[in-house]
Amino acid sequence: MSSHDINNLQHSFRRAVNLSGSPGAVSTSPTQSFMDTLPRRMSASNKAKALKPFSTGDMKILLLENVNATAVDIFREQGYQVEFLKSSLPEEELIEKIKDVHAVGIRSKTRLTANILKHAKNLVCIGCFCIGTNQVDLTYATNAGIAVFNSPFSNSRSVAELIIGEIITLARQVGDRSIELHTGTWNKVSNKCWEVRGKTLGIIGYGHIGSQLSVLAEAMGLHVLYYDTVTIMGLGTARQVPTLDELLNNSDFITCHVPATPETKNMLSAPQFAAMKEGAYVLNASRGTVVDIPALIQAFKAGKIAGAALDVYPSEPGKNGAGVFNNDLNPWASELTSLPNIILTPHIGGSTEEAQSAIGVEVATSLTKYINEGTSVGSVNFPEVSLRSLDYDEENTVRVLYIHHNVPGVLKTVNNVLSNHNIEKQFSDSKDGVAYLMADICDVNQSDIKDVYDQLNQTDAKISIRLLY
Ligand SMILES: NC(=O)c1ccc[n+]([C@@H]2O[C@H](COP(=O)([O-])OP(=O)(O)OC[C@H]3O[C@@H](n4cnc5c(N)ncnc54)[C@H](O)[C@@H]3O)[C@@H](O)[C@H]2O)c1
Ligand SMILES: O=C(O)CC[C@@H](O)C(=O)O
C-alpha cells in the first residue's frame, strides 16, 4: 500500500466516530500509539486489515507476576499501553489498577475473584500466563463477557523434567547429602538409597504433564501406573488403574498432576497415606490444595513415607523474598522445613526459560487476536468463534462482536439490526449459557456505526458488545 493510501487510512481512522456507552464498545479515534504502528502494519500486508477497537485512550494491558518479556514486546508492538509488575498485588491495590484496563495478565498467584472483576469496567479479556486457571472466577468472567485464555501445555515438559529429577533426588537422598556437605559434613551412605529402575511410578492425572512424565519415567526403567477420572490410552506400557487406591497400594513414587477442583482438594490425606506402600515417596507439583500437608508430615514422621517433593502450597507468597514462607502463611511451615528428605521448591515447575518464553508468546498472541479481531479460539471459558480477517478493500465493513445470554430469539433480534446492512459473514456458538456472535457487515458509514451499537445495546440478552473496523 502506498504512503498516500496509508495517509488516507490514517485520516479515515481519525474521523472515527466518538461513541459513548459500554467501555468495550468501539469509540473515538485510534490512539497515537496505534497510528504510529500503522505504516509497519500496512507494509506487512496490504490484504489482512489490521482491525482494532478504538478507545478514548490506549488499549491498557496490566501484566502481573513477572510475565515473560515476550508478551510485553508483543503488546507494545501492537501499540498497547502496558503496565508490567514483577509481583501479584494485594486486593485493594489490584482493584485500583484493574478498574480501567482492557486486559490483564496473571500467573498462578493472583486471584481474580468476582469482587475484583466487578470493578474492572473495561476488561474484555484475561490471560493466564500458565496452565492453571483456577485462580480466576471463570463463571463470573463468562457472565461478564470476559474471555479467559491460558497456555495449555507450554510448560508441561518443564514440570515433567523437574519431577524426574526429584524422583532420583529423593531415591538417593541427594538433597540431604548436598545440604550436609555444604556445611562440611561428609556422609557417604547407601542405606535406603535406591535405583529407580524397576520401581513403580503412580501418576495421578494423565493429562499434558502426566503423560509427558509417563514417557520420561518409562525411559528411566520405571513401571508406570496412572489414575485419571477419564479413560485415556496409556503411552508405552503405562497402565491405567481403575481406582486411586490401586495406584496408592502399588506405587513406590506417587505424583499428582490434577487441576485444583473441589474433587481434588486434599486428594491425598491421611487415608490415602495409610493406603500407600511402606517407604513410598510423594510428589506434588499440581496445586497446593491437592495434598493435605499436615497429613503428609504425620505420615513422614510415622515412617510411612520415605520422602516428598512439594512445589505448590495452599498459600504461597505474592513475591520473592527472604523469610516469606513462614507459619503466618502456612501454620505447619516450620515443621515441614525441619524434615529430612523433603524437597521444597517455590512453584518453579513451569519456571524455565523455554516454557516462560513460549507461554508469553502463546497467551499474548491469543489476547491480541481477541482484542484486535474478536477471535476466541483457545479460550478456556468462551465458545470458540473466529472469522477470516477483513481485507483492506472492504473499507466500510464493520466487525460486530456480540456476547449474549443464550436465550431463544436473540439471533433474530440481532440479525434484524444487522440486516440493515449486508451481512458479509457471520458465526455464532454458545457454551454454558453464554453465546458469542461475530458478524462482518458491509456498507457501514461512520454515522451508521453508532446506530448499530445503540440498537444492539438495547437488546435484553446482551452481555458485551464490541465493534471493530
Ligand atoms: N507447578 C507448576 O509450576 C505447574 C505447572 C503447570 C501446571 N501445574 C498444575 O498442574 C495441573 C495439571 O496440569 P496439566 O497440564 O497436566 O493439566 P491437564 O488438564 O492436561 O491434565 C489434568 C488431568 O487430570 C485429570 N483429572 C482431573 N480431575 C481428576 C481427579 N479428581 N482425579 C483424577 N484425575 C483427574 C484430568 O482428566 C486430566 O487428564 C494444572 O491444573 C496446574 O494446576 C503446575
Ligand atoms: O508459573 C506460574 O506462576 C504457574 C505455573 C503453573 O502452576 C501453571 O499453572 O502453569
TrEMBL record:
Molecular function as annotated in GO: 2-oxoglutarate reductase activity; NAD binding; phosphoglycerate dehydrogenase activity
UniProt catalytic activity: (R)-2-hydroxyglutarate + NAD(+) = 2-oxoglutarate + NADH + H(+); (2R)-3-phosphoglycerate + NAD(+) = 3-phosphooxypyruvate + NADH + H(+)
Domain ACT: residue ranges: 399-469
Gene3D superfamilies: 3.30.70.260, NAD(P)-binding Rossmann-like Domain
Domain of life (superkingdom): Eukaryota
GO biological process: L-serine biosynthetic process
Alphabetical UniProt keywords: Amino-acid biosynthesis, NAD, Oxidoreductase, Phosphoprotein, Serine biosynthesis
EC identifiers of the protein: 1.1.1.399, 1.1.1.95
Class of the enzyme per the UniProt entry, highest EC level: oxidoreductase
Functional note: Catalyzes the reversible oxidation of 3-phospho-D-glycerate to 3-phosphonooxypyruvate, the first step of the phosphorylated L-serine biosynthesis pathway. Also catalyzes the reversible oxidation of 2-hydroxyglutarate to 2-oxoglutarate.
Name used for this protein in its record: 2-oxoglutarate reductase
